[in-house]
Write a structure and sequence with these properties.
Elements: H1 8-25, H2 31-34, E1 44-47, E2 67-70, E3 74-75, E4 78-79, E5 87-88, H3 95-99, E6 106-110, E7 112-113, H4 117-121, H5 124-135, E8 143-147, H6 162-166, E9 173-177, H7 185-193, E10 200-205, H8 215-229, E11 234-239, E12 241-243, E13 249-251, H9 254-263, E14 269-272, H10 274-277, H11 280-294
Helix pairs in contact: 1-11, 7-8
């Protein structure tokens, strides 16, 4: 793997914007509190790789993002990298260029998955085998972890087969979880604790984008997961989209997204997803809205 590309100037530019954001949450701060302002509300972005966004560009580092979670590098037996046993996509990412982006200083690299969740759950052995091939490839990215893109919720009766298969993949390893049944934070954490391997981290999908819950309720989930599993094993996926009239989804507007992100202050937060739902115009609006609040 390539060495980290994290120039000091890029970090300073990102942290300056982030400090502005955090002032919104604490309009009156002591000197000691001000020293803690250089903590990003957004640690990273998610990229759900597809042909439409095969070469993502954006300004997410201005919001604090320095880590990229790639959802998958093989999906439905189509690879976005060379060197595997399946066909490659007609639209291939420029991984060397991506590795130089300030929002991809570190990468959690997604492995093999499927767009259809049920198909993925029924194809676990093959997806794990393809994933093992991916972990052996050399890339220009600074890979700091792996993500197995088979999402987990309490309705999955076959989840107990997952730990044995996850044991075949390298660490650090992450999966994503969500509560489709609205069990509540305590019961949800209990259900995960029954099977989750102690060396696997979780991305919690907040459910705000699909109106499953509000951001304050999602925060209760995240806090409970941190209490149960530890801060280093829990990250929040903040859904940066909303249902669109007539079907499908749209980007969240600034009045929706900024309060959502501010609610999660103190947690590691990743925007889902940057290439599809957080264009440069929205980044500008978020920063402009923050500046107006300070004036």
């Amino acid at each position: 793997m390539a060495l980290s590309r994290a120039p000091f100037v890029r970090r300073c530019q990102r942290w300056t914007c982030v400090a502005l954001w955090l002032l919104l949450a604490s309009p009156v701060c002591s000197r000691a509190e001000n020293q803690g302002l250089l903590t990003a509300l957004v640690q990273g972005i998610v990229w759900q790789t597809d042909n439409m966004t095969a070469n993502p560009t954006g300004q997410w580092h201005r919001l604090g993002a320095g880590q990229l979670l790639v959802q998958w590098t093989i999906v439905d037996d189509i690879a976005f990298v060379d060197g595997t046993s399946v066909a490659t996509s007609q639209e291939m990412p420029d991984w060397r260029r991506i590795a130089k982006e300030p929002w991809a200083e570190e990468v959690i690299l997604g492995l093999a998955g499927r767009f259809d969740q049920n198909l993925a759950r029924n194809d676990l052995p093959r997806l794990v085998e393809l994933s093992r091939q991916l972990t052996l490839l050399q890339t220009p990215l600074k890979v700091v972890g792996w993500y197995f893109p088979v999402e987990v919720d309490p309705t999955w009766n076959g989840v107990l087969q997952l730990p044995k298969l996850l044991a075949l993949l390298p660490r650090p390893l992450w999966i994503s979880v969500y509560d489709s049944s609205n069990q509540g934070p305590e019961n949800f954490a209990d259900s995960l604790a029954k099977w989750l391997p102690p060396d696997v981290g979780i991305f919690f999908q907040d459910g705000v984008g699909v109106h499953a819950r509000t951001a304050p309720v999602a925060l209760e989930y995240a806090d409970k997961l941190v209490t149960r599993f530890g801060k280093q094993r829990v990250k929040i996926i903040a859904e940066a989209f909303r249902p669109k009239a007539g079907g499908g989804f749209r980007s969240a507007i600034v009045e929706e997204l900024l309060p959502q992100l501010m609610t999660y202050k103190g947690h590691a937060v990743y925007l889902f997803d940057g290439p599809h739902y957080v264009p440069p115009e929205l980044v500008d609006e978020l920063l402009q809205y923050a500046a107006k609040r300070l004036n």
